[in-house]
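Sequence only, no structure available. Ideas?
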Amino acid sequence: MEDLGLPKAERREALSVELTRHLLDYLLSGQFAPGQRIPSERQLAQALSVGRSAVRDAIRPLAAFGLLDVRVGDGTYLTDPNTDLLPRLIEWGMLVQERRVIDLIEVRWHFEVVTARLAAERRDEQAVADLQRLLTELSQARTPDAFSRIDIAFHLRIAEASGNTVLAAILNRIQTLLRVWIMRIQTTTPQLESTYREHIPIFEAIAAGDAEAAAAAMAKHLTGATERLKATLEDVDDRPLRASGLAASQ
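Reply:
I predicted one. C-alpha cells follow.
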C-alpha cells in the first residue's frame, strides 16, 4: 500500500468530513507548491484505505472552494498563489469543525429571520417574481443536489430583497460555509416535499408585505432545518479512518 505521508485521524466522525480534514492537512503540509499536481485518486484511496468514490467526494468540495483545480484527463492541482486561497482555507477550517457548524447555524437563524422581515417590507415586483420562480423550481427538484442548490438560491434572494447589502453579504458567506452540510441533510434524510412546503408561507408573507408573518414563517422553517442539521451531526457515521500508510512522510 502506497505511503503518502497523510496525517492520522484524531477522532471518529463522518468519513467524508474526516477525509476532507486529512486532505486539507496533507495539502497544507508543505509537500506541495501551488500549481503542483497532487497524487491521483487511486493513490490517495490506497493510502487512506477507502474507495476512490470517497476520495472523489472529499476532493469535490475542496475544488468548489478553490483549493484544488481538477483538470479532466490531466489530474488535480493545488491552486496558484494568485487565488484567494487563505480565506478559503480558513472557511474550510471552520466548516469541518462541528462546533463551528453549530455556531454558524445559530447565526444563520437570527440573521435570516431579520432578512425575511426586511424583505417583506422592502420587496419589489422583481424580487417577488424571482422568489416565485425559485419556489416553483424547488417544487420540481427531484434530487438532493438540485433541491439544495435552489433552496440556497431562494434564501439568498430573500437576503438581497432585504435591501441590506451587509446582511446579504454575511448570509452569502454563511450559506457558502454551510453548503456541504445543507446538502448532507437532503442526502442522508431526504425530506424534499416537507422542506419545500416550509418555504411556501415564507414566500406568501413576503409577497404580501407582511413582515411579522415572514419573520415567523422563516423562524419556523429554520427551527426545523436546524434540528435536521444537528441530527446529521449527531448521527454521522463513526467509522474510523484506517491509518495504514499515513504515518511516515512521502
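The two ends are 13 Å apart (CA to CA).
Hope that gets you unstuck.
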